[in-house]
Design a protein that fits this description.
By secondary structure, the protein is mainly beta. It is built from 2 helices and 10 strands.
């Protein structure tokens, strides 16, 4: 895929554990992993928020694959098995970060339900982590090569629809 392809929709189905990018000439599905604790909007819930979001910020441009980020900053580390063994409890944020902001006041924006203030991202995770099953702490995890591809495709401000149900019941909205 290239940036020249016109993106029509960006959708996430928590039930399917898939992110779908609909473009003028193709549909691309990415296997993802959302929150282990399910769906929720509240700060501190470790749940994935639903509704309309947008890409607020893109972090990690030109970073090496498996670059490690903590607090949205590159640590200077590159993830490998030795690093994983040294820090077994770390929630790995790798390669790229697409920081999300909610678009619906009272649902996922402002107050105790603010997606951006909750630091909800689309980000890379170790390739050993399962995709297709909910295992994250609230973010949307992707394979590193997939998040790099997505990062290069999406502009800041790109709208993203996140819903609980399968893709059969997703409303339409253009990019």
């Amino acid at each position: 895929m290239t940036e020249s392809m016109a993106i029509e929709k960006i959708e996430v189905s928590i039930q399917d554990q898939v992110m779908r990018i609909t473009m003028s000439d193709q549909i691309k599905d990415y296997s993802i992993s959302t929150a282990k604790l399910g769906i929720g909007q509240q700060k501190g819930s470790n749940q994935t928020p639903i509704g309309w979001h947008e890409v607020r910020s893109k972090i990690g441009t030109n970073a090496e694959i498996n670059s490690v980020f903590i607090g949205r900053r590159f640590t200077g580390e590159i993830y490998d098995q030795a690093l994983a063994e040294k820090f077994p409890q770390r929630d790995w944020i790798l390669s790229r970060i697409l920081w999300l902001s909610g678009c619906e006041v009272g649902r996922n924006r402002l107050g105790n339900v603010d997606t951006m203030q909750r630091y909800i991202y689309i980000h890379g995770t170790p390739d050993s982590e399962p995709m297709g099953v909910p295992e994250s702490h609230g973010c949307i995890r992707m394979r590193n090569k997939d998040v790099i591809e997505l990062f290069d495709l999406l502009p800041v401000g790109a709208p993203i629809w996140i819903q609980e149900s399968t893709f059969a019941r997703i409303p339409c909205r253009s990019v």
